[in-house]
Write a structure and sequence with these properties.
The protein has two helices and seven strands; from the N terminus they run ααβββββββ. The chain is α+β, with helices and mostly antiparallel strands. The chain has a domain of 61 residues. Strands 3-2-6 form a three-stranded mixed β-sheet, with no helix packed on it.
């Protein structure tokens, strides 16, 4: 049985390597107008890719505001202000502040976060009541 298996493997490897690779058809096999259209389309796509790359670089160069507060906000889209405060039930004058009043990037995973705040954390944001709203954002 083992000999038959070895023979089968050897036969399949010879058959696999014996098949020749197919060469691409020469350009002369295509209509010249088709080739010109394909080249023009490739050029347009390259220009669009370059424009998209430049737009992404410009967007990355714009630094989001870092200071913010719960009343006025002040964070760019995709960021949240970590200005959280908790007041004891029935006592508006006994509040505790939490957060650093800075803009933090919203995230799903650690890989979404920048170097200065490398970890994606799910933390409650309190707005005065004892019920906070869980938000996932980058923190240290």
């Amino acid at each position: 049985m083992r000999q038959w298996t070895m023979c089968w493997v050897l036969l399949m490897s010879v058959a696999t390597f014996a098949c020749s690779n197919r060469d691409q058809p020469p350009e002369s096999a295509y209509d010249t107008s088709t080739l010109e259209s394909a080249r023009a389309l490739a050029k347009i796509r390259a220009q669009e890719d370059e424009q998209n790359r430049k737009a992404q670089e410009e967007k990355a160069a714009v630094k989001p505001k870092t200071e913010c507060n719960r009343l006025t906000g002040g964070c760019a889209e995709g960021y949240i202000c970590w200005d959280s405060y908790f007041c004891k039930q029935g006592f508006d004058d006994q509040c505790s502040a939490a957060g650093d009043k800075r803009c933090h990037k919203l995230c799903d995973f650690d890989g979404d976060c920048p170097e200065q705040m490398p970890r994606c954390r799910e933390l409650p944001i309190f707005s005065g009541s004892e019920r906070g709203k869980l938000e996932k954002f980058c923190a240290q």
